[in-house]
């Protein structure tokens, strides 16, 4: 092989697309990290609103704006980013794992059980829902300790417990409460995340197809704004429908293992199941719009995956 041929081979090797699983993880992690860091204030406000019954002085009628104002007044603007380190780690790892599992599960399922072109829309939707729910459930179960730490750190200034960092929080909770404490709220987390991800994926793929048809009718290529819109619609709708389990998860992970839907409704009314819904829906709408847009963009840059426009 001549020198020129060798150099061309080296260049080709260096620019070879990243493996699909690695592409999915990198793209998902990047999207999760960026969206989590930017939108952490909404998560802090949501957690404080949902925990109103755990500390005197919190009212179920306190709005998101009033809650945010209290945080800024008592803790300064930095208080709105409480637990941001844990949130970024949790979301980046969670999104990376989710998209990795989503790509793998989709690929394996399509290989072993090819989708029929004659299948009804209902059957196709159910298949997509199952893939999204299964992928998120596995990721959520693996990262439950980080979810617990994120929630505790967001509420630390109210609970009076201080942590020096994510590692310290993991050690402190594990030492005091054992493995049970680190996996507290796992059931309610799965009850929230499985249907959320199933609905989110199902609605996103549908909306993405619709936006593709709109773009084609207008004689143009699908843009990042089309993807952003599809992600926003899917994320907002799925979040609203699955908010009650998030309220329960927050209560359990902040030290109320006896919390239940029945107890919350009996003591506080049905409205309590949607406490903190506004900041959470706003955060998830923006987060999912950013996540899907960034995922698609980064995935294309790295060579494409089975969920990207460059799918095989």
TrEMBL record:
Bilayer-spanning residue ranges: none
Protein name in UniProt: Mitochondrial carrier family
UniProt cross-references to PROSITE patterns, sorted A to Z: SOLCAR
GO MF annotation terms: glycine transmembrane transporter activity
Solcar repeats by residue range: 19-108, 123-210, 222-301
Localization: Membrane
Protein family according to the UniProt entry: Belongs to the mitochondrial carrier (TC 2.A.29) family.
Alphabetized PANTHER family for the sequence: MITOCHONDRIAL GLYCINE TRANSPORTER
Keyword set includes Endoplasmic reticulum: no
InterPro entries: MCP (IPR002067), MCP_dom_sf (IPR023395), MCP_transmembrane (IPR018108)
Keyword Transcription regulation in record: no
GO cellular component: membrane; mitochondrion
Superkingdom in the source lineage: Eukaryota
Annotated source species: Micromonas commoda (strain RCC299 / NOUM17 / CCMP2709)
């Amino acid at each position: 092989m001549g020198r020129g041929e060798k150099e061309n081979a080296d260049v080709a090797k260096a620019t070879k697309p990243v493996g699909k699983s690695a592409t999915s993880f990198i793209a998902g992690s990047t999207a999760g990290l960026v969206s989590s860091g930017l939108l952490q204030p909404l998560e802090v406000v949501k957690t404080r609103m949902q925990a109103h019954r755990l500390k005197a002085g919190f009212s179920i009628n306190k709005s998101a704006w009033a809650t945010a104002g209290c945080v800024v007044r008592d803790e300064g603007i930095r208080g709105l980013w409480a637990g941001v380190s844990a949130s970024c780690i949790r979301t980046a790892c969670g999104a990376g794992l989710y998209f990795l599992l989503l790509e793998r599960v989709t690929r394996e399922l399509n290989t072993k059980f090819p989708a029929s072109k004659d299948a009804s829309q209902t059957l196709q939707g159910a298949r997509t829902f199952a893939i999204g729910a299964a992928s998120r459930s596995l990721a959520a179960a693996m990262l439950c300790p980080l979810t617990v730490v994120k929630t505790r750190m967001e509420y630390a200034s109210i609970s009076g417990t201080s942590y020096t960092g994510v590692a310290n929080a993991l050690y402190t909770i594990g030492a005091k409460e054992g493995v049970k404490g680190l996996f507290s709220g796992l059931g309610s987390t799965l009850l929230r995340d499985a249907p959320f991800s199933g609905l989110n994926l199902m609605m996103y793929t549908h909306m993405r197809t619709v936006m593709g048809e709109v773009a084609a009718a207008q004689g143009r290529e699908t843009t990042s704004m089309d993807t952003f819109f599809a992600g926003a619609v899917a994320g907002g709708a799925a979040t609203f429908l699955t908010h009650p389990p998030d309220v329960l998860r927050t209560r359990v992970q902040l030290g109320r293992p006896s919390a239940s839907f029945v107890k919350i409704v009996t003591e506080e009314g049905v409205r309590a199941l949607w406490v903190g819904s506004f900041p959470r829906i706003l955060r998830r709408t923006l987060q999912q719009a950013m996540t899907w847009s960034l995922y698609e963009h980064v995935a294309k840059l790295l060579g494409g995956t089975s969920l990207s426009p460059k799918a095989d």
